[in-house]
Design goal:
There is one protein chain. This protein is mainly alpha-helical. Helix content is 57%, strand content 11%.
């Protein structure tokens, strides 16, 4: 595996997951050498100066994290089993989907009854 990918996977990704709840809008940028090749010569860390709540820090304020990374960060800060937040999110989405299906079915049945009644 390429060294840069190893650093990304085992160093930078965990840093973003763990520090995002504490530093809203955390970004990590690589600074490259201007010579031949694409050598990384530095990493630049930046974050928003204002204090944010946990939910804000892991949602809209950080576009660099995937949903999965945000959920893992929340799990770590909350001290719960990893993937708990993701499972809660998926369960909520499934419930919303089921409610929407039930609503459409109810409307269909009411429409059919209305048509048969006239």
């Amino acid at each position: 595996m390429e060294k840069a990918k190893i650093v990304d996977q085992f160093v930078l990704k965990p840093i973003k997951e763990e520090l995002t709840p504490l530093f809203g809008g955390l970004t990590i940028r690589k600074k490259y050498d201007e010579g031949r090749g694409k050598l990384v010569i530095a990493y630049v860390f930046a974050w928003e100066a204002s204090v944010k709540t946990l939910r804000t820090c892991t949602s809209a304020s950080n576009g660099e994290l995937t949903d999965k990374e945000k959920w893992l960060a929340l799990d770590k800060v909350r001290g719960v089993k990893l993937d708990t937040t993701e499972q809660e999110y998926l369960a909520k989405k499934q419930k919303e989907h089921d409610e929407e299906i039930a609503k459409k079915a109810k409307q269909e049945v009411l429409g059919q009854l209305k048509n048969n009644w006239h």
